[in-house]
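note to self: dont lose this again. the chain is below, predicted strucutre after it. 118 aa total, dont forget to put it in the shared folder this time
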Amino acid sequence: MTSVFVKRVYEKPEKKDGFRILVDHLWPRGLTKEAVHADVWIKETAPSTSLRKWFNHEPGKWAAFKKLYTAELKKSTAVTGLIEYCKKNKTVTLLYAAKDEEHNHALVLQQFLSRLLK
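---
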């Protein structure tokens, strides 16, 4: 079974990260491709621009954001590719740039994938 973790892209890459997937729609500010150390960038799994802008990382909108983003993921064709990477790798780390480590789309994506991979 695959273990799916989340990590800020600004943290130091580690061997234990396994297969690293950047899941943000926008490239992280101030980082080069080499600094990110992502094996793949799947920006299509990020929340839609309208949802991302509406949420604006406001904790008060977290519950609604999780529901809306999960609904987007259920319709996303990009999730299929993400699941394939998960099945091919024992450890997958989803990389995100948000400062808030408790309210970000990568956490929702992690939960979503964990349910699908059971």
